[in-house]
Design goal:
The chain is an alpha+beta fold. It folds into two domains: about 300 residues, Naphthalene 1,2-dioxygenase Alpha Subunit, Chain A, domain 1, CATH 3.90.380.10; about 120 residues, Rieske Iron-sulfur Protein, CATH 2.102.10.10. The protein is built from eight helices and 18 strands. It has an eight-stranded mixed beta sheet with strand order 12-13-14-15-16-17-11-18. Strand 9 and strand 10 form a beta hairpin. The radius of gyration is 23 Å and the shape is globular. The two termini are about 35 Å apart. FE2/S2 (inorganic) cluster binds next to loops.
């Protein structure tokens, strides 16, 4: 007989009612099963994932704010494919396979830019921003039947949502709205459309992309891997919300101590840092640890009202806490009104035991003398935060530390080691607690795709 199960998942007191409107952690039973470890390293599984998942699911190609003027474009690489996302002269966003129909050359070689049309580097055929073939070099040398119907770029489905551009390689894919599981207006509340990319780093890690997703979908590992967070993050009090279509969220209270810390009262250096960072002087602060979070919220609320930042739609918890939101299959966004961390776990084209950790820092420029870029955003010295310049995409080669700050460096060191253990013939698949509910939920959705049910 199994022992009685008495754990009650935490509910964040600041979470809005509607956060529990959909299926939430509290009324869904995803069972107790284990998935096969093979999914983390098998080439056959990887190939099936490509066919059943990546080429059929809506994927975040990039933020809409990357396309400002007609002619602006960027490329989005996934597996072996590269996709061009471009803003046309009619201000329409379009997406195409990054392939020249003539002899297959990759058409656009850089990551972003602004162009009147795309010209292939092999034989100079050119294509308009709407994908139409604009010119064929020495056209008179092609027999008419050969170029009949004009060889245009092959288009990819594209939709916009909450300041993000989604693409789907499946011509028959249902509309994004039918596959988007978050509550209405939740993502929009953060006004991602007003944020600009100020940093973009892609690093290559020695683990399966799902080993990455799993590690970022729970805070159960914080005490062990990131012990420095224990006085400023309430890991054990984190609310997990799960939504339709594999979407999910965790609400991690910040400026609040973990119950794992013995001293619950004093304002330690971690909390003092958070006070100071928010603009409150820790030297004269007369509250204790339990009041820090509320006081930071009140301070931020007033400042946002004074500056007219339009944060009224956000509850107090959203001003301090990390609402880490999972967009199936491969994205987590750490949402804050000042900025957002969009991280994508991109599959390697050939090796199931590698992935690209693609991380975009979005920042909302505020035009006021008193405004300071939050230090916790971890932007390197000299980062241009004016919003006028789109950050270049940086690449960190395999095996090098991504240098993204202590917490992420800790994760990047850990994951290849986890991957090695997963690969062992002794490992029988993960055992998930209710703190890891989002992982169970994510893999259940993945299985729907893998089993042809979606
Ligand atoms: S392959 Fe592009 S023009 Fe020939
Ligand atoms: Fe971590």
């Amino acid at each position: 007989m199994a022992a009685k199960f008495e754990y009650t998942p935490p509910v964040n007191p600041d979470a809005p009612e509607d956060s529990l409107e959909h299926r939430s952690a509290h009324d869904v039973d995803l069972g107790t099963g284990r998935v096969d470890a093979e999914r983390y390293y098998s080439k056959a599984f990887m190939q099936k994932e490509w066919e059943q998942l990546w080429t059929r699911v809506w994927l975040i190609a990039g933020p809409r704010s990357d396309l400002e003027e007609p002619g602006d474009y960027f490329t989005f690489d996934v597996g072996r494919e590269s996709i061009i996302v471009a803003l046309g002269n009619d201000n329409q966003v379009r997406a195409f396979y990054n392939v020249c129909p003539h002899r297959g050359n990759r058409l656009v070689l850089n990551e972003q830019g602004c162009a009147e049309r795309f010209t292939c580097a092999f034989h100079s055929w050119s294509f308009d921003l709407d994908g139409k073939c604009a010119s064929i070099t020495d056209e008179e040398t092609f027999r008419p039947g050969v170029i009949e119907g004009r060889p245009n770029l092959k288009s990819v489905k594209v939709e916009e949502k909450a300041g993000l551009i989604f693409i789907n390689m499946d011509e028959n894919a249902p509309p994004l709205a039918e596959r988007f599981g978050l509550p209405d207006g939740y993502l929009e509340g953060y006004q991602l459309d007003k944020m600009k990319v100020v940093r973009h780093v892609v690093s290559e890690w020695g683990a399966n992309w799902k080993t990455g997703v799993d590690a970022f979908y729970e805070v159960y590992h914080l005490h062990a891997v990131h012990p420095q967070t224990s006085t400023v993050m309430d890991d054990f009090g984190t609310q997990n919300d799960i939504y339709p279509h594999g979407f999910s969220r965790m609400i991690v209270p910040l400026a609040k101590k973990s119950p794992r810390v013995d001293d619950q009262a004093s304002v330690d250096p971690g909390l003092a840092y958070m006070l100071g960072e928010a603009g409150l002087d820790p030297e004269v602060y007369d509250g204790d640890a339990s009041s820090v979070r509320k006081d930071i919220q009140a301070f931020k609320r007033k400042r946002a009202d004074d500056l007219g930042l339009g944060w009224d739609g956000l509850v107090d918890g959203q001003l301090t806490d990390s609402w880490a939101t999972g967009i199936f299959p491969n994205v987590q966004i750490g949402l804050h009104p000042e900025g957002a961390f969009l991280m994508r776990f991109m599959p390697h084209p050939t090796d199931p035991e590698r992935f690209y950790y693609d991380t975009i820092t979005l920042y909302r420029p505020v035009d006021d003398e008193s405004w300071k870029v939050p230090d916790w955003m971890g932007l390197p010295e000299g980062t241009d935060v004016s919003g006028d310049v789109r950050a270049e995409r940086g690449f960190v080669p395999f095996g090098e530390a991504p240098d993204l700050g202590l917490v992420l460096d800790q994760d990047s060191e850990l994951l290849p080691v986890v991957q090695k253990g997963i690969r062992s013939r002794a490992f029988e698949g993960p055992i998930w607690s209710e703190q890891e509910l989002r992982l169970r939920h994510f893999h259940a959705e993945l299985d729907l795709y893998m089993n042809g049910k979606k």
